[in-house]
Amino acid sequence: MKVSRQTLWRLLAAVFVVNLVVMGLGAWYSAQQVPPIPDEVVGPDGESLATGADVRQGKVVFQQNGLMNHGSILGNGAYFGSDLTAEALDMKVEYMRDYYAREKYGTSFSDLDADAKAAVSDQVRRELDSAVGRAGTIEYSAAEMYAHEQVRERYVELYHEGELERGIPSGTVSDEAEARRLADFAMWTAWFSHADRPGSDHSYTNEWPYQPAAGNEPAGATMTWSVIAMVLLVAGAGIGVWLYKSVELPEPKTGAVDVPHPRDVALTPSQRAASRYVPIAALLFVVQVMLGGLLAHYYIERDGFFGLGELLGIDFLSILPFSMAKTLHLDLGILWIATLWLGAGLFLPPLLTGYEPKNQDRYVNGLLVALVVVVVGGMSGIWLGANGYIDGQLWWILGNEGLEYLEVGRFWQFGLLAGFLIWAGLAARGFKPLLDKEAPYGLAHMILYAGGSIALLFTAGLLYTPQTNIVTTEFWRWWVVHMWVEGAFEFFIIAVVSLTLVSMNLLSRRSAEKAVAFEALFVMGTGVIGVSHHYWWVGQPDVWLPLGSIFSTLELIPLVLILFEAMNEYRTLATSGESFPYTLPFMFIIASGVWNFVGAGVLGFFINLPLVNYYEHGTYLTVAHAHAAMFGAFGFLALGMATYILRLTVSPGQWVERRLRWAFWLWNAGLALMVLVSLLPVGFLQLEVAFTQSYAAARSLEFYNGGLVQALFWARLPGDTLLIAGTIVFAYDVVKKRFVLRETSDVPARTPVSDQVMSDDD
Questions:
Q1: Strands annotated E in 186-268
Q2: In the prediction, which pLDDT does 574 show?
């Protein structure tokens, strides 16, 4: 079955429009269905306990103090601390039981006999399970009011006074009143997690988190859509294989090709400038993996720093608490990958067009300087904002916005957005000869569309403020985070890999255009609407459960295609002979495809099944999925691009790749050990505890301090060590290679690649 480029382009445009309509209507409908923030919370005698302003201020406290990177809310955030929603609901049950025990029997709940405990427990369950969420005023029973007040005082102990055993330093929240507002916020999320949505028989969160004592158990739709998703898995895998075998898209040539050797490629000033992005990324990478090792250690020693704190009399936990280290670890991971992608996008145009725009090197250097300023400013702002050095409303403008993956202040976010747009302009300058001659669905246009989609989706993160309802905030945050990962990033990967294959003369431009459009069609067709699998348990309307189930399952199809492509590329590599000069960059591309299938495909599908996701939401299974997908897929691609840039910028006679090969295998071995030996086993143990006890129990300190879990945390050490070692080897090699760069030429050398690309009729 032959498919033309024009047909694929029309299908891609149609899918884009459908996605836009579905997600646009979903955004409008969801805005009407979010759990209401009450005007007032009152007791049985009409006594006011909290107001809507208190709840909103509690969200501000949550964000300002970076607590989303210590624990989580509604299952989203870091896994070191407890989930505030689950913990608040758990404490609400506990304190209500104690209230009724003392009221009826004159003693604490723990001292009651079995029959009395059962009677009190049943009363609490029926009271919480019968609550209905309505806008306006929340009317508490006397027991609920007592529980709310007790949770407030507990939060003062935890977040203001500090609790080192939980890794919470003193003064995390600056004063007692703010800690109480944080409790008001957490208790509101607990309320709408057990209160039924009006006109429905389940809560706003589909009865999540699992807490049988409050009546929170999986709804019937959770099982139904899990079964449908399993059926779609089988069908989707079959469709993916059939499409790959039946659609005629030319494969990379394996014989009689003129692969340009690095010595035949002239280095232009703009490419020399683009190569400077590599050492900057390497530095960010080193800091990121060091912080990753520290975060893993914090799970073992929560109140210290390898024993040095007590020895030296330094409070390391206050200087670099888990939340700050996690924030920097996440942001630096995104930044070093993005830095390498930006550099690759500016390095490739001269190879394909044989054209160097005037003063392009100055602009490329200028963008790098601007990138460094934004990175330093953004990271500094996070620390200053979280530590209270930025007053008033500027804390989230210049400091830390406090949302996972979107921590940097709004000003720096605009800086990053401007950087994306500048990059697009510079890439367009470099590709100008190709852009002028090809159709709108051409290869050069595709890379600009991919980069532009990253910038476009980033704007969704500007649609809320710290006072916005947390459910609305999470809706737009996932537009950025998940649509990047499952949409724009995948699109960018496909476009960059295709450009790279074309620059190696392994794939013709027109064949690459077909491949990009074909795979982008399925990536965008499944990943965009698939973002809604994050909405099942965060207070969004029920419509997202079927949509999220279906489209997150269908995301497997493009990943199957990419895996097949990686296998074919491996066969191409194996038959290329020893003279093939780009073996190592090719190995990174293959590894990226394999880890993408494992991390995003296999693990991603498993944890997104509604029934599994209900119990595992916010556990170490998600950690395993995130590390395998983010570093394994996007990180390896970025490192492959870096290796390709190094191969072409280093003087051919000085090229040595031994250290880079060591780094490659250290990374792969380290990631496999970390995921398979530590992260996944801990995640499965958490899943069992969540299923047999409650979600709060699976996220509790008691779980993490268990003997087997602690042993598995220690078992992570070999994998982490290999990852850190690989990164240090890579950074050292990058620095060494900066001293053996070739000379530049103002005019790119003509190669068979540039001649073919520019002579092909569109």
A1: none
A2: 59
